[in-house]
Amino acid sequence: MTKELKQEYTRKITQANKTQLITILYEMLMLYVEEAKAAHEKEDRMGFREGIRKARGCINELLNSLNFDYQLAVNFLQLYLYVNRELARAEVRNTEKPLDNAYKVIKGLHGAYEKLGSMDTSGPVMENVQTVYAGLTYGRNNLVENFTDQGTNRGFRA
């Protein structure tokens, strides 16, 4: 993941509600699977393993976020465990096919959560963060985002 993408995801996370956070995790997971596949095509074994390791980190975060007070969580658990097994199978066998299987599952979940995210009217999970204004200033070939300074205790509540 490039430095610019990391900054973009950091910004998205600070502005996201609960549903959008899950969507972002799915996006990151798909990105890491794509990176692993690209590394495998280049015969970069370390890059392949690193992409899978990061993808499994996203799956672990999704697993830890499940709320078993709801029956639907058991279905998500089964899907996440399947994806985790496919990622492990890809790493052990040094092949891309299991990555394709994992990607298909996550892509379907991502699409569903994107639709849910558009219906979720709750506010951002994080409070006391910088406000982002996009489009106030334009660069030569890009849109410039400005952040307002909200003091030295941003992110902390006294």
Briefly summarize what is shown.
The protein has five helices and two strands, in the order αααααββ.
Structure description:
The chain is mainly alpha-helical. It has helices at 3-15, 18-41, 45-64, 72-93, 97-119, and strands spanning 131-138, 143-148. It has a two-stranded antiparallel ribbon. A hairpin with a 4-residue loop joins strand 1 (131-138) and strand 2. Helix 2 (18-41) packs antiparallel against helix 3 and helix 4 packs antiparallel against helix 5 (97-119). The longest helix is centred in the N-terminal third of the chain and has 24 residues, at 18-41. The two termini are 35 Å apart.
Question: How do the strands and helices of this protein lay out in sequence?
Answer:
Blueprint: H1 3-15, H2 18-41, H3 45-64, H4 72-93, H5 97-119, E1 131-138, E2 143-148
Antiparallel strand pairs: 1-2
Global Rg: 18 Å
**Proportion of helical residues:** 55-70%
Oligomer designation: single chain
* Total helical elements: 5
